[in-house]
């Protein structure tokens, strides 16, 4: 989609991806503007009242006991954003920053934050013009929201700090605003707080990870089908009647995919008769639906949490415009998102682990059923895919470390006012590394399985898996032969997995996978 309109209701995951990853333009709907105006009127009324209201006429966090006089409240908001824009480390990826900006805008449009419409519209303009604030890796504890990352974005709206323009050029925010014909915002009462107090960074990364994992789990089934074929395994264990007696939905979907992917395989048919002495395949082949299906179910649970969070208005204090009041709350705590981010890192590591085990079986002459050691052309002179498996193993080992949950940690902050935090941003950051690792591990399995299928000639693979082999060959990855520079072939396979080309090749033959 080229354009997304933000209303008072939740944005969809597809809209988040369109804006974050594809650069879609953003506008605010009329209903949302009305809701923004209604909430702003409540804030203005409370700002004029003699009674202190948190976030409007007081300090913040542990400094909330100080009542701030009217003439200092503009400075209060500026000071809040400047002091909280305290991130450090490498720049965060453009798609992550765009995602968190969109999600913050979505919350502003619910009419529960009390910002002015011009502030919300400037945030939408940043997205439309491709202006991306520089956000640093470290700074969020995942409670009181992703304060530091969001503060760097709010700072840019003020015309301060650094941004990258649509071409990726680094420049001062004031210059980017001027080039786009935009004016920086002068923050009013509560606006600074409303711009920085949300779970948007961790939620945006959750949505992007869910999008990637849904595709990668289908690729995992493709890779597994190629491995079962190449290792002369059986498809009988994936029969629907066997899955029905343990009715996990993900397991059934994965098993059905494997059956379809191996349909009409000459290799499988070659050892299906009464002379076959293979009683049971190894777990890494036979239990694929149980592992990759459980991963699917976990992804869908995480998606249900993401859906609820997308429908939330995360801010503190929150404006209840219908009742004309502002109330403090704890909805900014990132625990619901942090838990599922950690859970996804666990399933990514385990799917990568079973993929690596399937790959390793191809390379061991004692277990690969007649294939040359390491799939080498001239074993001893050639090493074949020996070190490709080392690469997989290194990545899987790293992913196991990344599966250690961030959300079980907490560290007190703000003079013990914020004494329990979620570490959800940290969970999100490590999940991004896990998703990249899974992509690479699956790519090596596809690469290795394709070589094995070629070595089974004149037996022929299924039409679906043959399409994947053909894709690799057409992309410049050669078939079996003497050793050659392997890293570029691995990177080609990685790009074909990441882009969706491997999935598309298989689905072009058998239709959409479950």
Explain this structure to me?
- The protein has 514 residues and is mainly alpha-helical.
- The chain has 2 domains: 3-198, Fumarase/aspartase (N-terminal domain) (Fumarase C, Chain B, domain 1), CATH 1.10.275.10; 205-510, Up-down Bundle (Fumarase C, Chain A, domain 2).
- It contains 20 helices and 9 strands.
- The chain has helices spanning 13-20, 30-48, 73-84, 94-108, 117-129, 147-157, 173-179, 191-196, 200-230, 240-244, 249-261, 266-269, 283-286, 288-310, 335-363, 386-402, 424-455, 463-474, 487-498, 501-510; strands at residues 3-6, 25-28, 88-91, 132-133, 136-138, 162-164, 170-172, 318-320, 325-327.
- Strands 4-6-7 form a 3-stranded antiparallel beta sheet. A two-stranded parallel sheet has the order 1-2. It has a two-stranded antiparallel ribbon with strand order 3-5.
- Helix 11 packs across helix 14 (288-310), helix 16 packs antiparallel against helix 17 and helix 18 runs antiparallel to helix 20 (501-510).
- The longest helix is centred in the last third of the chain and has 32 residues, at 424-455.
- The protein starts with a strand and ends with a helix.
- The model has no long low-confidence stretch (mean pLDDT 95).
Which tags fit this structure?
mainly alpha; Fumarase C, Chain A, domain 2; 9 strands; 55% helix; elongated; HutH; Fumarase/histidase_N; EC 4.3.1.3
In terms of DSSP E residues, the strand content is 5-15%
Question: What is the typical, i.e. mean, pLDDT?
Answer: 95
Q: Output the helix-strand order.
A: EHEHHEHHEEHEEHHHHHHHHEEHHHHHH
Q: Which architecture of the largest domain would the CATH scheme give at its second level?
A: Up-down Bundle
Estimated structural class: mainly alpha
How many domains in all?
Answer: 2
| Unreliable residue stretches | none
CATH superfamily membership of the largest domain, which one? Fumarase/aspartase (Central domain)
* Cα-atom radius of gyration: 26 Å
End-to-end C-alpha gap: 24 Å
Number of helices: 20
What is the overall shape?
elongated
Largest sheet properties? 3 strands, antiparallel
CATH secondary-structure class of the largest domain:
Mainly Alpha
Q: Helix fraction?
A: 55-70%
| Spatial sequence of strands, sheet with the most strands | 4-6-7
Q: Give the number of DSSP strands.
A: 9
């Amino acid at each position: 989609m080229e354009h997304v309109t933000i209303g008072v209701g939740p944005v969809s995951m597809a809209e988040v991806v369109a804006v974050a990853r594809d650069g879609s333009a953003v506008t605010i709907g009329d209903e949302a503007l009305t809701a923004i105006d209604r909430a702003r009127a409540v804030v203005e009324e409370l700002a004029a009242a003699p009674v202190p209201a948190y976030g409007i006429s007081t300090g913040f966090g542990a400094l909330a006991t100080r009542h701030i006089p009217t003439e200092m409240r503009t400075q209060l908001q500026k000071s809040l954003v400047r002091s909280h824009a305290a991130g450090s480390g490498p720049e965060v990826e453009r798609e992550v920053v765009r995602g968190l900006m969109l999600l913050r805008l979505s919350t502003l449009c619910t009419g529960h934050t009390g910002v002015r419409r011009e502030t919300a519209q400037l945030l939408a303009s940043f997205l439309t013009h491709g202006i991306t604030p520089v956000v640093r890796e470290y700074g969020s504890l995942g409670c009181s929201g992703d304060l530091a990352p969001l503060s760097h974005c709010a700072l840019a709206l003020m015309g301060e700090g650094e941004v990258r323009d649509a071409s990726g050029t680094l420049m001062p925010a004031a210059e980017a605003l001027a080039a786009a014909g935009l004016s920086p915002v002068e923050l009013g009462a509560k606006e600074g707080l409303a711009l920085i107090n949300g779970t948007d960074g961790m939620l945006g990364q959750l949505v992007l990870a869910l999008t990637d994992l849904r595709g990668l789990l289908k690729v995992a089934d493709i890779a597994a089908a190629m491995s079962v074929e190449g290792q002369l395994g059986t498809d009988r264990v994936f029969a629907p009647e066997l899955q029905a007696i343990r009715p996990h939905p993900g397991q059934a979907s994965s098993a059905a995919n494997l059956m379809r992917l191996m349909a009409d395989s000459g290799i499988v048919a070659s050892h299906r008769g009464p002379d076959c002495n293979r009683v049971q395949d190894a777990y890494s082949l036979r239990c694929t639906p149980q592992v990759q299906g459980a991963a699917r179910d976990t992804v869908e649970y995480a998606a249900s949490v993401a859906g609820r969070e997308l429908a939330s208005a995360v801010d503190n204090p929150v404006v209840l415009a219908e009742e004309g009041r502002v109330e403090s709350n704890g909805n900014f705590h990132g625990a619901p998102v942090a838990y599922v981010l950690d859970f996804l890192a666990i399933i990514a590591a385990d799917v990568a682990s079973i993929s690596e085990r399937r790959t390793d079986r191809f390379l061991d002459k004692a277990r690969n059923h007649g294939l040359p050691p390491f799939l080498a052309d001239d074993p001893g002179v050639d090493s074949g895919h020996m070190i490709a498996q080392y690469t997989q193993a290194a990545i899987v080992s790293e992913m196991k470390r990344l599966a250690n949950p961030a959300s079980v940690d907490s560290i007190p902050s703000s003079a013990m006012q914020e004494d329990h935090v979620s570490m959800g941003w940290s969970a999100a950051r490590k999940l991004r590394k896990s998703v990249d690792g899974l992509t690479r591990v699956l790519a090596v399995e596809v690469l290795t399985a394709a070589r094995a299928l070629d070595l089974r000639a004149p037996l022929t693979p299924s039409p679906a898996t043959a399409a994947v082999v053909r894709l690799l060959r057409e992309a410049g990855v050669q078939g079996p032969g003497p050793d050659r520079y392997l890293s570029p072939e691995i990177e080609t396979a990685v790009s074909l997995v990441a882009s969706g080309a491997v999935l598309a090749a298989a689905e072009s033959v058998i239709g959409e996978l479950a």
